[in-house]
Amino acid sequence: MNVHELRGRLSKAGQEHLLQFWTELEEAQQVELYAELEAMNLEELNVFFQKATAGFSRPQPDSVDARMEPVPREVLGSATRDQDQLQAWESEGLFQISQNKVAVLLLAGGQGTRLGVAYPKGMYDVGLPSHKTLFQIQAERILKLQQLAEKYHGNKCVIPWYIMTSGRTMESTEEFFTKHKYFGLRRENVIFFQQGMLPAMTFDGKIILEEKHKVSMAPDGNGGLYRALAAQRIVQDMERRGVGSVHVYCVDNILVRVADPRFIGFCVQKGADCGAKVVEKTNPTEPVGVVCRVDGVYQVVEYSEITLATAQRRGPDGRLLFSAGNIANHFFTVPFLRDVVRVHEPQLLHHVAQKKIPCVGPQGQRVKPDKPNGIKMEKFVFDIFQFAKKFVVYEVLREDEFSPLKNADSQGGKDNPTTARHALLSLHHCWVLNAGGHFVDENGSRLPAIPRSAANGKSETITADVNYNLKDANDAPIQCEISPLVSYAGEGIEGYVAGKEFHAPLIIDENGVHELVKNGL
Fold first, then answer.
1. Using one digit for the tens of pLDDT, what is the confidence trace for 179-214?
2. Residue 307 and residue 67: Cα distance in Å, rounded?
3. What span, in angstroms and rounded, lies between the C-alpha atoms of 197 and 220?
4. Which of 44, 185, 190, 333 is most buried by its number of CB atoms within 10 A?
5. Strand pairing of 351-355 and 324-333?
6. Are 260 and 238 in contact (CB under 8 A)?
7. Is residue 276 classed exposed, middle or buried when 0-12, 13-18 and 19+ CB atoms within 10 A define those classes?
8. Percent of the chain at pLDDT above 70?
9. Secondary structure class of 348 (helix, strand, coil)
10. Are 107 and 251 in contact (CB under 8 A)?
11. What gap in Å lies between CA 480 and CA 500, rounded to an integer?
12. Nearest to 403 by CA among 329, 324, 508
C-alpha cells in the first residue's frame, strides 16, 4: 500500500480528512479503506458534485406548470380505450418474442429495509397461499410467455433476463437463484450485473465516513442502469443474442406483466425507440410522477413540482389532464440503449437528495443526525426519455398491473405486503369469474362478484373506489391464486373453472386445481 501517494491524491481533491483515523485502524481495516479509496475517481466525483449541486442551488425557473403539456392522444395506447387494437398488439409482441428479439431487464438493487428485512426485496414473500417470492412469480411469467410464443409460432424461444443488483444485493440474489435452480429458467439466460455506488457527501463536497475505516456509499439510483450497461458490456450481450427490444421494470410490483406482449407489440407497431407504461392517477394529489411534455420534451414531472391547480385540471372527457402516472415500467430498443450508453449518459446530471446520513464525528464517535447533514447523488431511469426520437405511452389498468411493495404492514397505509397480496388475489378471483367459474360460501351459496373494470374492460368511476377499498388491510378478498405457469394474464383457464363452483382458498397450478379448505372460509 502506497499510503503517501494516496494521501497526496486525497489532498489534491480536498478529501484528505478520509485518512484522519488511519493510525487508529487495525491492519485489516487499513487494507479495506485503502482499497475503497484507491478505487475512487476523485476528480470525477468532484465534477459530479459541482454539477449536481449547481443545478440544485440555482434559482429554479418559474413553475413548470405553464410549460407542461399532456401526452397527445396520437402517441397514447390504452388498454381501455383501444380495445380493438389489443389483439393485434399482443400478436405482434408474441411474434417478437418467438423470434428471440425480446429481453427483460429487472431493476433489483433495493434491499427490503423498509419492509423490515435485511435481504433483497425480490426474495420477499407477501404471504400468498403458495408462498412464492417476487423473483419466482416473475421468473414463472417469463417461462409462461416463452411457452405461449412457442405455442402460437411453433419455435422454441428465449427471453433473456438481465437482473441489475447493487453491491449490497448481488451475492445474496445470485445465491437465491442458484438455490432455487433459477426457477426453471436456463442459467445462461439469467444475467446478473451490478449498478454503481457513489459516496455520500456533505453540503460542501466532503466525502462522508460511515465508520473510521468505511466510506458511506449508496447505489447511484435506478438511472445508474446506463453506466452499468456500459461498464459491464450488457448492450453488447443483447446485440450478440439478436435482441431488438427490452422491457425494463422494478422488482417491487407484484402484478408486473414481464415482457408484456401487448406493450411490446404496441411500441413496435408505433415504431417507437422508447416507451413508458403508465396507470391513470386515482386523484389529483396522488404522489406519483406524471409522464408529460415540458417545453416539447418528454419527461417525468414529480408530483411535488406541480401546483394543485394544474394537478386538478381535467379534459373534455372529465379525466385528469395530467393523468399518466409513472410506474417505472419502460420499453427501449437496443439501438436506443446503445446510443444512450455511448453518447447521452455522460450528459445526464445527478439528482440531489438531502439525507440524514449516519457518520463519524471529529473525535471518531458515531453520529446519527436528526436533520439532513449531507447529500446522496442519483440518476433516474426515466432521465433518458428526452433523447428518444419516437416516444410512446401505454396506459393500463392499475388493478390489473400495478401494486408496488414499499412499506411494512406495521406502518399501516398502503403499498405493503397486505395490499400487494390482496391485489393479486383479487385479480385472480376476477380471472376465474371471467372464465365462467364461481365461488360459494360454506352453505353453498354463490358469493357476489366483485365489480371491477377488468371484468368488462370499461373504466367506470365506481371501479377505482371498489379496488381502493379492496386494498384496505381489513377487507380481505377471496383467496384465489393462479400460478403464472398456468396463466400469464387470465388466458387459458376455462378448462379448469368454466361452469364450476369453488370454495376458497383456491390454488390453480401446473398440478391442477386445489381447494385448500373444503368447509368454511
1. 999 999 999 999 999 998 999 999 999 999 999 999
2. 12
3. 5
4. 333
5. unpaired
6. no
7. buried
8. 93
9. coil
10. yes
11. 14
12. 329
Cell of 109: 438493487
Our CA angle for 244, 276, 189, nearest 5°, is: 40
Grid coordinates given for 79 = 388498454
**What is the C-alpha to C-alpha distance for residues 298 and 461, in angstroms, rounded to an integer?**
29
Is the torsion defined by CA of 306, 310, 314, 316 positive or negative?
negative
- Judge contact between 435 and 500, C-beta under 8 A: no
CA–CA gap between residue 293 and residue 71 (Å, rounded): 7
Strand partners, 292: 299
Residue pair 250/407 in contact (Cβ under 8 Å)? The answer is no
Q: Please tell me the pTM assigned to this model.
A: 0.90
Angle, CA 378 vertex, CA 239 and CA 253 arms, to 5°: 70
Kindly state the cell numbers that stand for 65.
406548470
Q: Which three cell numbers stand for residue 373?
A: 447533514
Can you read off the three cell numbers belonging to residue 450?
366483485
The C-alpha atoms of residue 177 and residue 169 are separated, in whole angstroms, by 12
Q: Which cell numbers hold the place of 112?
A: 427490503
Condensed to tens digits (0 to 9), the pLDDT of residues 308-352 reads 999 999 999 899 999 999 999 999 999 999 999 999 998 888 989
Tell me how crowded residue 42 is: count the other CB atoms within 10 A of its CB. Answer: 17
Whether 107 and 222 have beta carbons less than 8 Å apart is answered as yes
Cell numbers describing residue 397: 389498468
Of 289, 389, 377, residue with least CA distance to 344: 389
Tell me which of 519 and 339 has the higher pLDDT. Answer: 339
- Coil vs helix vs strand at 107: strand
H or E element that contains 259: none
Q: What residue type is assigned to position 469 of the chain?
A: N
- Long-range contacts of residues 73-77, Cβ cutoff 8 Å, at least 24 apart: 75/270, 75/391, 75/392, 75/393, 76/324, 76/392, 76/393, 76/394, 76/395, 77/266, 77/270, 77/392, 77/393, 77/394, 77/395
CB-hemisphere CA count at 13 Å for 283? 5
